[in-house]
Amino acid sequence: MISMRKMKKINGYLVVKFNDRELREWEGTALGKYGVIDAELYTGTLEVDRGAMEYDNADSIEEAVELARGLESELDTEEPEVKVTLIRRTRPPRRRKWTRRR
Fold first, then answer.
1. Which of 81, 75, 61 is nearest to 11 (CA)?
2. Which contacts of 67-76 are long-range, i.e. CB under 8 A and separated by 24 or more positions?
3. Which of 13, 23, 50, 82 could bond to 68 as cystine, CB 3.0-4.6 Å?
4. pLDDT digits (tens, 9 = 90+) for 14-36
5. How far, in Å, CA of 7 to CA of 9, rounded?
6. Measured at the alpha carbon of residue 87, what is the angle toward residues 81 and 90, in degrees to the nearest 5?
7. Residue of 46, 16, 9 whose CA lies nearest to 34
């Protein structure tokens, strides 16, 4: 069975190209030439993957790549809180007198 072709991986998403058979079978359903899917959900079978596609209507690889790059900014990430402690001296440090050993 011939399936979608992986073209690029960007930010955990795959840009895939649909083959001619898939384009004929899905004609009239707004399927473009390229799609974007989460790499972990990709099976390679359009019938299974279409529901998991983030985008399936890109007409060029450049458009699909831009759509995939845009998905990174939509991800909700929780960044750990960073605490910084600043210690400020109020007087200069004492100078030690060095003695020479004999």
1. 75
2. 67/36, 68/8, 68/10, 68/11, 68/13, 68/15, 68/36, 69/10, 69/11, 71/11, 71/13, 71/36, 72/10, 72/11
3. 13
4. 999 998 998 999 899 989 999 99
5. 7
6. 155
7. 16
